[in-house]
Amino acid sequence: MTGGQPFPQDRETSLTIAQVAERTGLSHDTLRYYEKAGLIERVGRTTGNQRRYDAADLAWLEFLLRLRETGMPIADMQRFAQLRSRGDETVADRLAVLREHRAELGERIRALRRSAAALDDKIDHYERMLGQEPGRPGTEDPT
To answer: What is the pTM of this model?
Structure first.
């Protein structure tokens, strides 16, 4: 999660929108938008009408953030959320959505690796032009 704090695992946990925003790094507005856009089901409310997120809400939100981080378009996230809300009868459809997204992600990763290699080649070229040893400390990819 962006905020660096893990989500609570206790089923009895109930967090305010401010607490969820802090844990996820998402703004209050983004959390409200996710609810309005159908990405998350309407969360529980207190008698004072304040949103209260439980562990299941947080686990689902964490997965949505992974989808977003991997570049899934909002429309596809909405489709996946809609399928999920319809229950186990949609498991095969959800699996197909995730497999398609994973294949697209794999291609993007391969493209990024090709681009990184091209950048490395150009960096080496310029280092040689400057009389430097290619691959000096600090220029390697740590991964």
So the answer is: 0.75
